[in-house]
Amino acid sequence: ALLNPFSSFGKPAGAATHRISARRRGTVRRMLDVEVSSFSGEVLASLHVEEDSVAVSAIRAALEPALPGACVRADLVSQAGHRFEDDEEVTSPLGCGCIVRLVAVLSSEVPDMCLRRFRRCAYMGEDSDLNAIYSVEVPGLRKGLGVAMREFRVPSASEGADHRCVDAAIAGMRELAGQSTWHPRLARVYGAFFEPWDCRIRLFVQRLTGPSIAQWIRQSGPLAMADVRGYAADIVEALGFLHSSGVAHGGIRGASMFLDSSGAVLEAPSGQVRKAADKLRVQQAWSTVGGWCKLLWLAPENLTGQESSELANDIWAFACTVMEMGTGQPPWQHLRGGDDNSIMEIFCVVSEKSRRGARSLPVGTLPEDCLDFLDSMLIR
Questions:
Q1: How many CB atoms lie within 10 A of CB 261?
Q2: What is the pTM of this model?
Q3: SS3 187
Q4: Which of 141, 126, 272 lies closest to 194, judged by CA?
Q5: Burial (CB count within 10 angstroms: exposed 0-12, middle 13-18, buried 19+), residue 316
Q6: Distances from the Cα of 131 to the Cαs of 150, 157, 200, in angstroms?
Q7: Element spanning 367, H or E
Q8: Which sign does the torsion angle of CA 135, 139, 145, 151 carry?
């Protein structure tokens, strides 16, 4: 042993030399086990890697299948209280063979700081009020969540705009986004914020990829009554969820209902933000074709100066959408007849007949039970 400093007692000299040379070359086997649990102690994911560190992104990927549907983000926290960022790595403080235990903090709300770090991916077009819609990526959200951003332009404070209504709308959207439960027939709201420097309200919602009912009708004509009943039932469930929370949708029509393999999904509600933007007169809605067309889904009292409930407006708009699905045209088109009546003239006819309790529905086009169903909802 004195003559060979690399030898060990009771073993051939070459054995110790081999271990040392292997350690120097970095071929010693390294292992790391990571265990992710919820606050209640339930193990959500386990990860075994042949390295002494692992990227946080890999842990998130292993955790993804175990996340509940209402969860939109999961923060990873060490037992010492350190919150890991996506670009960090998890290492064992005690060397190889140790189990690193993390806690997943599940949330249905996206922090404002994450929303403000959004990245535009693609321009998706405009809605009927000429609000721009983008496909975006938001850091921190679980993978696979499609996110769309709607931009509402508002006048600046220097132009005399009072932004208090915008602040109230933003608070309402954040409260809605923070709900732990959500209906599967309603697209989610992820959050919203307002940038005074560029005068834009940005609303982040779930992106729907299927065709809208309005697009389907334009290509294939009116829906079969069985489909009308099925899609109407889907929307009634989504509306019931919203209205039970005291929230109105504010934009129900065929263009806001999207089809997937299991039925119809209602676009995420944006009524509070849209109403605040309209109040500040930035969209000039009544001077555009899209704005005028929206009158066809609008309850009559909205243009007669009478006070109306936002929830009741949703019911009227839903009835008009059922008419749209059954006839294959925007509502009230049968009142045009052979005359080229304007949308405003049609609206006046509907308003007058509704006031007198007279039926203004497309008799002969829809079955009698459907007409009775519409009569029960088209009440001023």
A1: 5
A2: 0.73
A3: coil
A4: 272
A5: buried
A6: 7, 20, 10
A7: none
A8: negative
Q: Give the contacts of 48 (CB within 8 A, at least 6 positions apart).
A: 31, 32, 33, 34
Rg, Å, the chain Cα set: 29
Token readout for 364 is: 């002969």
Phi, psi of 330 (to 5 degrees): -55, 155
Tens digit of pLDDT for each residue in 90-117? 887 665 557 888 888 877 777 788 888 8
Tokens of 69: 């549907």
DSSP state of 296: G
Dihedral over Cα of 239, 241, 242, 243: its sign = positive
**Tokens 């009292």, residue located:** 301
The sheet with strand 147-153 has its strands ordered as 119-126, 132-137, 147-153, 200-206, 189-195
In the three-class reduction of DSSP (H, G, I as helix; E, B as strand; rest coil), residue 363 is classed as strand
Contact present, 45 and 63 (Cβ < 8 Å): yes
Nearest to 152 by CA among 45, 279, 44, 237: 279
Hey, what amino acid is at 42? Answer: E
pLDDT tens by residue, 271-307: 778 777 777 754 444 344 445 567 788 877 766 656 6
CA-based angle 281:206:255, to the nearest 5? 60
Question: Sorting pLDDT into bands at 50, 70 and 90, what band is 223?
Answer: very high
